[in-house]
Amino acid sequence: MDIADLRDRILKQDRRALARAITLVESARPDHRAMAAELLELLRGAGRQAQRIGLSGTPGVGKSTFIESFGMMLTGQGLRVAVLAVDPSSARSGGSILGDKTRMERLSRDPNAFIRPSPSQTHLGGVARRTREAVALCEAFGFDVVLIETVGVGQSETVVAEMSDLFLLLLAPAGGDELQGVKRGIMEMADIILINKADGDLKPTAIRTCADYAGALRLLRKRPQDPTGFPKAMTVSAVEQDGLDTAWAEMGALTTWRRDNGHWDARRVAQSEYWFHQEVRQGVLALLEKGAAKDAIDRLGRDVSSGSITPSAAADKVLALLNVDAT
Ligand code: GDP
Question: 74 and 22: one domain?
């Protein structure tokens, strides 16, 4: 494969070349990894900085409906939109609950939109790297907005928030006074909480839920990277396309403020550092899964079980094999 040619075609906004490049970055084959690295290096700094928007929500809350309506609104304004997904379920279940093309039929037919399902991977770290690389490819291609979707499961929100400029949390209207068990950590990540399905019979509940969340957000620590009023809660209806323009305006206001105050660039820098450290950690952990280290771990594990060596002494032996000094 001619990587320089692939680069040129991506820069000429050839969608098939983009799809091919994403397939390349998703591949675990060492020769593909090398080509992917070369391509990303050739494209570094090309294109534009897209608005990267992370979106999380539990299954059924209306993510695909929202992305379709929101995406169509943006393409209607002449913006180009890419949709990527981080699907933590695909590794375990073998099936994907996200990023399925058929879920967003109208948007997937829109020439200004590009939808890519989540890569199936064995672990979230692999998905994270591949999604980050796909984001970079989409930026080089020239998309204005890159939406990165995930379900509200485990660590996947952190992964998506750490590669987004803005993080949206989509919630459904909830009866009662429970805050839907949304974990505080996830609330703290959100820049805007959108209570979806604010239509028909659900509207009054949605408005009440929104007020509950607005109250909860006010109790959170004030973030220096936010202007007054953020993070905020709003109601939308993805089905009726109601409130989407207001939500987009709020995202714009937050982005402008952060850009003007240096927080936007600072966030991207902090994210680069975060991913650098994550990759180093994952690389070190991967060393334990193969070769002499793995053999030693298996063998010493049995010795620890039988009581013939202490856990610390056994660990020291493994680390010595890796040339790592634990002290
Ligand atoms: P996802 O699993 O988060 O992607 O959710 P979907 O987009 O597939 O939506 C789940 C269900 O909620 C579907 O039956 C949608 O029609 C419905 N839904 C999504 N958005 C809205 C909305 O704005 N209002 C109403 N009333 N229903 C919605």
Answer: no
- φ/ψ of residue 11, rounded to 5: -65, -25
User: What does the pLDDT read at residue 186?
Assistant: 83
Residues 243 and 108 in one domain: yes
- Write out the residue range of the structural domain in which residue 37 sits: 1-45
pLDDT tens digit string along 10-33?
A: 999 999 999 999 999 988 889 999
Helix (H, G, I), strand (E, B) or coil at 194: strand
The per-residue pLDDT for range 184-218, each reduced to its tens digit, is: 788 889 999 999 999 999 999 999 999 999 998 98
Ligand 1 near 104 CB (within 6 A): no
pLDDT of residue 220: 84
Q: What value, to the nearest 5°, has the Cα angle with vertex 126 and ends 11 and 33?
A: 50
- Pocket-testing residue among 65, 103, 107, 150, ligand 1, by greatest number of atoms within 8 A of Cβ: 65
**What Å distances lie between residue 108 and 111, 136, 182, CA to CA?**
8, 20, 31
Residue 105 Cβ inside 6 Å of ligand 1? The answer reads no
Same domain as 225, residue 113: yes
Residue 32 belongs to a domain with what CATH number?
Answer: 1.20.5.170
> How many domains are there within the chain?
2
What is the predicted pLDDT for the residue at 94? 47
Question: Separation of 167 CA from ligand 1 center, angstroms?
Answer: 20
* Residue 15 sits in the same domain as residue 63: no
